[in-house]
Specification:
alpha/beta, binds (6S)-5,6,7,8-tetrahydrofolate, single chain, TIM Barrel, 11 helices, 46% helix
């Protein structure tokens, strides 16, 4: 785009709107895990619809539970969510390629896969699926020796993985690199390491998206939502254009839009004004 300032060039997302991946359908959450076991389609359908209506691009589906049940559980989740919200695009959240394949086979349209890492079983299992079905793909800088403690170590893995996806014919635009967010309560530099990784990825791979599991930052802390908001603002400044989060958290959504606006990613402040007039941010209409 002509006349772009360096700050604007940081964003890979031309339509200045964050790509939100709704986190709530996750079997490790107690009520969701129980609903999956009981095959409670109303409960899951309702969670899907409410997230969709609050504005998400993708709905994350994580079956959790026992590994041997995961393929059938994820297939059921896909079918159930699709019946409740046919327009939704799904993000299948599992390291297990058999579960991902079972989900893909039930899905009406192309999904996002969450995720590929450099662990051998995922390179052998998940990468071929992403290339074959041309899915959107989340990439994690985890290797066979775990998560590298610093940004440069994470970059080494990201470089390896991007080389593999390029070889497999998946365009960079379909990649969502997750720099990995670790709890600030377990390491004082955890936030800074993630932010530094974001900046390096943005610089070296301008066409990829950047996403993360935002609320990991606040595990084990009070006032989690406030910490999540602070981190989201900094991550957006570092080039994050997507996040896995609770889309029904209005404060978080308002903070996200405010950050994009003051960073010059919202032309004529149009998104912010529109969202306010539509009652998507600010006081709940009618109260
Ligand atoms: N990266 C990638 N995928 C991921 C994660 C990541 N998938 C799973 C997880 N991390 C992101 N998903 C969740 C889902 C739920 C919660 C946190 C992360 C959670 N929910 C609260 C609960 O269940 O009580 C409530 C949420 C709220 O009220 O805000 O904690 O890092 N690629």
């Amino acid at each position: 785009m002509a006349g772009q300032t360096p700050a604007m060039a940081l964003s890979s997302c031309e339509a200045n709107d964050m790509i939100i991946i709704g986190e709530k359908i996750n079997g490790t959450r107690k009520e969701v895990g129980a609903a999956i076991v009981k095959r409670d389609a109303n409960f899951i359908g309702d969670l899907a619809l409410r997230q969709f209506q609050s504005g998400v691009t993708f709905l994350d589906l994580n079956a959790g539970g026992l590994p041997e049940r995961e393929p059938q559980d994820l297939a059921w989740l896909v079918q159930t969510v699709q019946e409740a919200v046919p327009e939704a695009t799904l993000c299948l959240d599992s390291p297990n390629h058999l579960a991902l394949l079972a989900g893909i086979e039930k899905a009406a349209k192309t999904v996002m896969l969450n995720s590929l890492s450099a662990e051998l079983f995922r390179v052998e299992g998940v990468l071929p699926l992403a290339c074959q079905f041309q899915t959107e793909l989340i990439i994690l800088p985890i290797g066979d020796k775990g998560i590298p403690p610093d940004a440069e170590g994470r970059m080494t893995i990201v470089r390896q993985l991007v080389e593999m996806t390029r070889k497999g014919g998946l365009p960079d635009e379909k990649l969502y690199v997750d720099p990995l967010v670790m709890a600030i309560s377990t390491g004082i530099e955890n936030g800074n390491i993630t932010l530094e990784t974001c900046r390096k990825i943005r610089e070296e791979f301008p066409a990829v998206h950047l996403t993360c599991g935002l609320s990991n930052i606040s595990f084990g802390m009070p006032l989690r939502s406030i910490l999540n908001q602070a981190f989201l603002v900094l991550a957006i400044q570092a080039g994050m254009d997507s996040a896995i989060l609770d889309p029904q958290n209005r404060e978080l959504r308002a903070m996200m839009m405010a950050a994009e606006t003051v960073l010059g990613k919202d032309r004529h402040c149009m998104n912010f004004n529109r969202a306010f007039r539509a009652g998507k941010i600010g006081p709940v209409k009618g109260s």
